[in-house]
Amino acid sequence: MRDRFVIGTSVSRRLAAAAASGAEAAAAQGESSFRSFMIAVQRCASSVALLQQYFSNTISRLLLPVDGAHPSACEDMGSAVSVVEAAAHKGLLQCIDTVMCEVERLLSSEQKVTDYRSPDDGAAPDHRPTNACIRIVAYLSRVLEVAFSALEGLNKQSFLTELGNRLHKGLLNHWQKFTFSPSGGLRLKRDITEYGEFVRSFNAPSIDEKFELLGIMANVFIVAPESLASLFEGTPSIRKDALRFIQLRDDYKTAKIASMLNSIMSE
């Protein structure tokens, strides 16, 4: 429903406000649906567990004396559970889509060009997270509260790991739309720290590592041009993404960093 409220930039203030209000309403509906589905999954898991227990303790024993009935019933039971699991899996992926749509909407509406490239870059740096980051972490904290209680074990780990990967990818793509000054790089690191502290609640080491590497990669906006090569020495795994992000420095052309990149890539 959010797509219905995406408008161009050359519109009246009244129309823009109406579109924003509609997008907020659609986002609220998505959040409500997310909560409802998570509760449904939790109840479904409990029901299936009771059914499996009853089948094992009662029905299965009654079928043992009947020739061929027991293995056939076990196969049917397994097939039925698989159908339920497939439906739940599809719904959980749609839940991740819903969450990421709202994250992308907040990034688009709340992130400002001046967040990472202040007109007055000589002023004292702002060490607070950007408003977009604050809004997103608050949203994720609120909407995922029900997921933390509704999902268990490997289901919970798999869901949160997939969401963490999608969030990491979405943020990478988002930041490539901006140009960064040194103080903007510091603000970016503060955002990354905020996101990283939140995803630690996922208990997913692979996601923690990705956000730690993001923090290291943000240094490409802070260090002097001649120090860029040293960033790759300890963490070669960030080279590919870092080389793309170096081009987003506001002094990329004036400091002739392109020639430095060629030497780094040839090593």
Described by strand count, sense and barrel closure, the largest sheet is: none
Mean pLDDT: 88
**Element order: H for helix, E for strand:** HHHHHHHHHH
Helix content: over 70%
Basic shape:
elongated
The span between the termini is: 49 Å
What is the tally of beta strands? Answer: 0
Rg, Å, rounded:
25 Å
Q: How many helices in DSSP terms?
A: 10
Class inferred from helices and paired strands: mainly alpha
Report low-confidence residues grouped into runs of 5 or more: none
In terms of DSSP E residues, the strand content is under 5%
Provide the descriptors you would attach to this structure in a database record:
single chain, 267 residues, mainly alpha, 10 helices, 70% helix, 0% strand, elongated
Account of the 3D structure:
The protein has 267 residues and is mainly alpha-helical. 70% of the residues lie in helices and 0% in strands. The protein is built from ten helices and no strands. The protein has helices at 13-63, 69-110, 131-143, 145-150, 153-175, 182-199, 205-217, 231-234, 239-246, 257-266. Helix 1 packs antiparallel against helix 2 (69-110). The longest helix is centred in the first third of the chain and has 51 residues, at 13-63. It is elongated. It starts with 12 loop residues before the first helix and ends with a helix. The mean pLDDT is 88.
